[in-house]
Write a structure and sequence with these properties.
The protein has helices spanning 3-15, 94-108, 112-128, 138-152, 156-169, 180-183, 189-206, 211-228, 270-286, 290-304, 314-331, 338-360, 372-399, 403-420, 423-436, and strands spanning 48-49, 53-54, 62-63, 66-67. With 446 residues, the chain is an all-alpha fold. It folds into 2 domains: 1-38 and 73-312, Alpha Horseshoe (Serine Threonine Protein Phosphatase 5, Tetratricopeptide repeat); 51-60 and 314-446, no CATH class.
Length: 446
């Protein structure tokens, strides 16, 4: 059986796995944890997708543009847990300690060229050492150097090369015949999980130049993390490939697998399970393979918002809103019908409810080691997604010929996009307002 066939079988299995019963949107927000996002602020082009959906009724128009808040999922150095090892340099062998310290110092001073020079030398030295010389968790340390080196690398190619060497070093003994010491070493479960994170980062770096390569890395990451979670052998695939993921809550759930309800090993977090699922879902969404993207998004949302969770951060809530909006957009790619529009609007309103709840939450106090940018950036994601969600809801109301509600939502979207600096979002909202006509004062937009 090929890797692609195995992956499709896993996804068909996940299609049966309802994350939670479908419900009408409300302000009651469940709690969970999910993937950490990259620190890079997305441009509007990263938040936009096109969809030509006819509006029903006489004289219907075609909606040329719909925003879609794409998942911001960089599995970067922070997600890889790199810096936990740099706080105490005595944890590292003396052969690499000086170069590692100098590389981190140069990075913190934003001298990336100098940082790359020192870190490259530290990495090559680490690769030449046997696992025993690196002390406890040798693969986590080795991949940690590779991760921070990929951050400062002068080109994406150099970043990929550093990470791929680390990924290959953790492969089976047959792949390490040229390095007997590593060939004899067996990764711990935690180190296997780190290797999944490395594969996710390699997939991210492959996004712009080779989608097939990106898919290969992310498929491997999903399959490996499911194995680590104890789900390595999916049951037989359903007889029909037309299994619906828009079923009602009354369906038989005896064979459903709800990832959020799994008892994960103590060393695995839900973020570790959710990140590869969400990344692969985002890839399939970009490729137009909705039947594969939707179940992956649904499972990622179930990990974000499981009903029994007790706490959830602002960052997690905002990422939940992004995924819900993504799912709403995916649903609207299906042949239009009242049921499809109802499903899409339900998810968009659920996203809106999450964001409104975040707005009511107090801002956390700044700690000694926290950054103001870190604290405000989490809410910034919600602020950006809010303009997108409002536009989507306006579009859906327009499709149902509810022009007054659509007008109000478009105006709110324009104001919100202006507030957060999404000028293209303001332009799209203005186009929508001109299309349907508007009454009253013109919103203060550029």
């Amino acid at each position: 059986m090929t890797a692609g066939t195995t992956m499709r079988q896993h996804i068909r299995w996940l299609i049966q796995a309802r994350p939670f019963p479908r419900r009408e949107p409300s302000l009651v927000v469940s709690r969970a944890v999910i993937v950490r996002r990259a620190s890079t602020r997305p441009s509007f082009s990263q938040l936009a997708a096109s969809l030509n959906a006819p509006v029903g009724g006489p004289g219907g128009v075609r909606l040329s543009t719909i925003f879609n808040a794409l998942l911001v999922l960089g599995v970067g150095a922070t997600a890889l847990g790199v810096y936990e090892f740099y706080s105490t340099f005595t944890l590292w062998p003396k052969e690499i300690r000086a170069d590692l310290r100098a590389g981190i110092k140069a990075r913190n001073q934003e001298n990336l060229a100098l940082s790359e020079r020192y870190l490259s030398r530290a990495y090559q030295t680490a690769l030449s050492l046997p696992p025993s010389a690196l002390g406890p968790d040798p693969y986590i340390k080795l991949s940690g150097i590779a991760a921070v080196l990929s951050e400062v690398a002068s080109s994406p190619r150099h970043a990929r090369e550093a990470l791929q060497v680390a990924w290959e070093r953790g492969a089976s003994s047959t792949s390490n015949s040229n390095d007997p010491a590593w060939a004899a070493y067996t990764l711990t479960d935690e180190e296997r999980l780190r290797r999944v994170a490395v594969a996710c980062k390699l997939g991210e770096l492959s996004e712009e130049w080779n989608q097939d390569e990106e898919e290969k890395w992310l498929q491997w990451a999903v399959e490996e993390v499911l194995k680590l979670a104890g789900l390595g052998a999916p049951p037989a695939a359903p007889k029909s490939d037309e299994t619906s993921i828009l079923h009602s809550a009354d369906d038989d759930t005896s064979k459903s697998i709800v990832l959020a309800e799994l008892e994960l090993p103590s060393w695995m977090r839900k973020v570790d399970l959710g990140a590869p699922l969400a990344a692969l879902g985002a890839l399939y969404a970009r490729k137009g393979q909705v039947e594969y993207a939707m179940p992956l998004y649904l499972q990622a949302i179930s990990l974000l918002l499981p009903p029994k969770a007790e706490t959830v951060s602002v960052e997690d809530r905002c990422e939940a809103a992004q995924l819900m909006n993504n799912l709403s957009e995916l649903i609207m790619r299906r042949p239009p019908s009242p049921e499809i529009r109802h499903q899409a609007e339900a998810w968009a309103r659920q996203a809106l409810g999450v964001i409104e709840h975040v707005e009511e939450m107090p801002s956390p106090r700044k700690g000694w080691f926290s950054s103001r940018d870190d604290q405000t950036e989490n809410r910034e994601v919600c602020n950006q997604v809010l303009g997108v969600v409002l536009f989507n809801l306006g579009m859906l109301r327009e499709m149902d010929l509810d022009k007054e509600a659509a007008r109000s939502l478009y105006e709110k979207s324009a104001a919100q996009c202006q507030k957060v600096g999404l000028r293209e979002g303001v332009m799209q909202a203005r186009v929508a307002l001109r299309r349907i006509g508007r009454s009253g004062d013109t919103p203060n937009v550029p």
